[in-house]
Design brief:
- The chain is α/β, with parallel strands linked by helices.
- The protein folds into two domains: 149 residues, Aspartate Aminotransferase, domain 1, CATH 3.90.1150.10; 221 residues, Type I PLP-dependent aspartate aminotransferase-like (Major domain) (Aspartate Aminotransferase, domain 2, 3-Layer(aba) Sandwich), CATH 3.40.640.
- Helix content is 44%, strand content 15%.
- It contains 14 helices and 14 strands.
- Strands 2-9-8-7-6-3-4-5 form an eight-stranded mixed sheet, with helices on both faces. A four-stranded antiparallel sheet has the order 10-11-14-13. A two-stranded parallel sheet has the order 1-12.
- The protein is globular and about 65 Å long.
- Bound molecules: pyridoxal-5'-phosphate.
């Protein structure tokens, strides 16, 4: 059977997260493992109304094939929002609507990567990007993160020794760590990249979900000719529409359009029309404020519970937005061992391992606070603290 499959697919391991999600079918298990937005916040009624209006006003054309680049007014909306919210000048012609930003990653791999091409990635990094670029048989160079973003010294040496075509970053409230790059770190990264020909992918699905502080400059504003910016409506409106986008310079966009034509001709036109109608008839910022309010309180609850329950020596990030925080156990302990204990205590999370490209066991883990209510977060952290104490008592793995 093995000979049936392409090398490209055989080399990519199945998603570890799916395995964990199986355990979460049990309703008595508290899950910090999922990476989903909260369905309780979906603007379902408003989307129903937008759908009705599109049917009433759009004619049969709303059910027709459409252009590969995406619905023009939606691309204009995105460009206007970049200008209003970030002071970023983007020409709508440089925007390609994709089937979620995940497709953006796949198209970038398809259009830019030959087998063995080198890609710099954050360690830990977004699992979906590792998977997407692995399909195109990228060779990864992982650069460690600290609380301010990718570390500059290892980045400089990687840029000097590798011939990296791409560098992939999630600069705001990163999945999985919750870390955001400071303004100073962004400048250092841009400076480090000055003499290279590496293109920077700035994947920013969480930037709008900021609980505190002000939005730093985007890489796209600092290095427009070398940055490919990805965005998504999955975390701010709904993920089921699968609507995201890529902003890229002309020459790259042209190739991405060809790659997309080969993949799916165009993104679902009907959902683009409904989403655009929703955006015209509703106040997206007010909706995002609700998300910020809820996730912000859930983050606070999680950090407070961690402060109260966890034993000494456990480090966590303090995300200013997004959906995730990152926990580091003392050196020598494996998060996957903790998971086995945690499952018995009926709480689950994602061990750090799949977010690294080295295949090793790591002492870090991801907790998601977006879908669990405050009381359940407190109980889940209590259970997790119990599992951590058990692990620490057993001592380090031999
Ligand atoms: C960093 C990052 N990029 C991309 C995606 C994919 O999002 P979309 O639903 O737009 O495909 C996610 C989803 O969790 C993500 O965390």
């Amino acid at each position: 059977m093995q000979e049936l499959f392409s090398d490209r697919i055989s080399d990519v391991p199945p998603s570890f997260i799916r395995e964990i999600l199986k355990v979460t079918q049990d309703p008595t298990v508290i899950s910090f493992a999922g990476g989903l937005p909260s369905a309780a916040l979906f603007p379902t009624k408003a989307i129903q109304a937008a759908t009705q209006k599109v049917f009433e006003t759009g004619g049969n054309e709303i059910l027709q094939y459409s252009t590969t680049e995406g619905y023009g007014p939606l691309r204009e909306y995105i460009a206007t929002r970049y200008r209003d919210k970030m002071g970023l000048e983007v020409n709508p012609d440089n925007i390609l609507i994709t089937n979620g930003s995940q497709q953006g990653l796949d198209l970038l791999g398809k259009a830019l990567l030959n087998e063995g091409d080198e890609v710099i990635i954050e360690a830990p990094g977004y699992l979906g990007a590792i998977q997407a670029f692995s399909i195109y048989r990228a060779r990864f160079h992982a650069v460690p993160m600290d609380d301010a973003g990718m570390q500059v010294t290892p980045l400089q040496s990687t840029l000097a020794t590798a011939r990296a075509k791409l560098m992939y970053t999630v600069p705001n409230f990163q999945n999985p760590s919750g870390i955001s790059y400071t303004n100073a770190r962004r400048r250092e990264v841009v400076e480090a990249m000055q003499d290279s020909r590496t293109l920077l992918i700035e994947d920013d699905p969480y930037g709008d979900i900021r609980f505190e502080g002000t939005r730093p400059d985007s890489f796209a504003s600092m290095m427009p000719e070398r940055t490919i910016l990805l965005g998504s409506f999955s975390k701010t409106v709904v993920p089921s529409f699968r609507l995201g986008w890529i902003v890229a310079p002309d020459s790259i966009l042209e190739k991405l359009v060809i790659a997309k034509q080969a993949s799916d001709l165009h993104t679902n036109y009907f959902s683009q029309r409904v989403l655009y109608q929703y955006l015209c008839d509703n106040d997206l910022d007010a909706h995002i404020e609700n998300i910020i309010d809820k996730y912000g309180r859930q983050r606070d609850t999680m950090l407070e519970a961690i402060g109260r329950e966890f034993p000494d020596g456990i480090e966590t990030t303090h995300p200013d937005g997004g959906m995730f925080l990152w926990v580091r156990l003392p050196e020598g302990y494996a998060a996957r061992d903790l998971l086995q204990k945690a499952i018995k205590d009926k709480v689950v999370f994602v061990p750090g391992d799949p977010f690294y490209v080295d295949g090793l066991a790591h002492n870090s883990l991801r907790l998601s606070f977006s879908t669990v209510d405050e009381a359940t977060i407190a109980e889940g952290i209590k259970r997790l603290a119990l599992a951590i104490r058990e692990l620490l008592q057993e001592g380090r793995a031999a």
